[in-house]
Amino acid sequence: MNSKNNGGRPLDPYELQYQQQLEQFTQLAGDTDDDIGLDPGSIDDAFAGYEQQTQQQYPLPRNYGQPNGGAVYGRPQQPYREQGETSGRGRQPYREQGARRREQQSDRGQQPYRPAPQRPARQNTEPPPRPQKNKKRSSSRNRPPKKQYEREQLQFGSHHEEHTRAKRHPIQRFFSTVVILVLVMFLALNCLLYYYVCLVNQRGRGERAVTGASMKSADVTNILLIGSDTRSPEEFGRTDSMILLSVNSSKKTVTMTSFMRDMYVEIVGNDNNGEKVDVWDKLNSAYVYGGAELLMDTIQYNFDIAVDDYVYVDFFAFIDIVDSIGGIEVEVTDEEAEGMEDPQREQNKYLGQASGTDLLTHGGKLNLNGNQALAYARLRYVGNADFQRTERQREVIGKIIDKVKGSNPLVMNKFAKTSLSKLSTNMSRAKMMTTAYKAIFSLNYEVKSLRLPAEGAYSYGWHGDQSTLDVDIDACRALLRSEIYE
């Protein structure tokens, strides 16, 4: 193709390349120049609108067309084209589109032609980078990776530093949840136990005269349960019930040992005035001389077993405790039902009730209320006198424990508040918390009953004007050691 067939002027290199491509396309399509219209005027008319739009979007610099004035990156710009020159940019339209555009151009009039700015030639050297101003968003492909910060480098309140939190495994989340629930339950249990502990009436720890005993172990906790028929804790009367509660955590046993009230023993310790006491008398009179401390000293001195703590309850409290759990079920004989009449009438007198309240007319498997259960535990003149009386007392305590373990939480809560508010002890609150934990874990322990003196280890005696039980002290000690510690 002749490079000077465009009105006598040399063609632009882009135009020349375009013309060559157009001729190749025409030869392949089988068209002629007359069909398509290759005259320069037709091409300018077809692309006049495009050049005008391009010029509006990309205005030419002021010194465009001047010698060496429009150089871009070292290449001089082409001189400004005259009107009517063919543009090398754009695509040749189809015949129908070209004709339609020529008709539109003829209706609107001839537009002045301004060629589009020329592209700079590619060179080996890269052009200087353009300054980035007010760049709001960058491409995700060119964005550098986020810097990972260590935990120590992160600062509180910083908006420029980020860190990712690793997702935990489901098993790890499960165990974390379990640990949190256990901690919450542990704290709730401690708060509940502390509330119950605060209900107990605390007494001061009196001075002890007997502090040594050979039967002592860290695995065994001995608490003396003292029951008295006195009407006030400040009244030092004779004790009707003396039961040593021994919890052995290694053997997993709970042993209730009843001490017969008529045992003739040596009472050693301090009396209520702080003076030394060393007399022989019945065991239940020790509480009259010097209260709970002297009673513990007497047991520890005679039977060589360590007793550091006690819990005191009077028979009025016993009635409320049994009533709080709805009574207990006891097998009562007709003889026992008749013998309960005298102690029950005495209790009704102190309770301010009618003399015949809660009296039993027959025996059988009966649900005894607090008043009736107390009369059953105090019954002395039916059966083997005081020996069978202690058995009834241990039976009643065991029935209460079994009833509480099988009750719902509401009944257990009522029982705890009622019983603990009626008790008095020399234990500190910290010691009571520890004892409460041991009591919870000992609910499934084996419960055993024991009585001192055992059969064959005593004889009936008479000292002064009262009948007594003369006991074999060595036999009693051996029985305690074998049943509780070994």
UniProtKB/TrEMBL annotation:
Which segments show compositional bias classed as Basic and acidic residues? 93-106, 147-164
Pfam families registered for this protein in UniProt:
LytR_cpsA_psr
Q: Where is the composition biased (Basic residues)?
A: 132-146
InterPro entries the UniProt entry points to:
LytR/CpsA/Psr_CW_biosynth, LytR_CpsA_psr
Q: Where are the transmembrane segments?
A: 174-197
Query: What ranges does the record give for the region Disordered, renumbered to this chain?
Result: 28-166
Record keywords: Protein biosynthesis included? no
The Cell envelope-related transcriptional attenuator domain covers which part of the protein? Answer: 238-405
Keywords assigned by UniProt?
A: Membrane, Transmembrane, Transmembrane helix
Reply yes or no: does the keyword Glycosyltransferase apply: no
The record, for PANTHER family, names:
POLYISOPRENYL-TEICHOIC ACID--PEPTIDOGLYCAN TEICHOIC ACID TRANSFERASE TAGU
Which NCBIfam families does the record match to this protein? lytR_cpsA_psr (TIGR00350)
Q: Which family does it belong to?
A: Belongs to the LytR/CpsA/Psr (LCP) family.
| Protein's recorded name | Cell envelope-like function transcriptional attenuator common domain protein
Q: Which organism is it from?
A: Ruminococcus albus 8
Its organism's taxonomic lineage begins at:
Bacteria, Bacillati, Bacillota, Clostridia, Eubacteriales
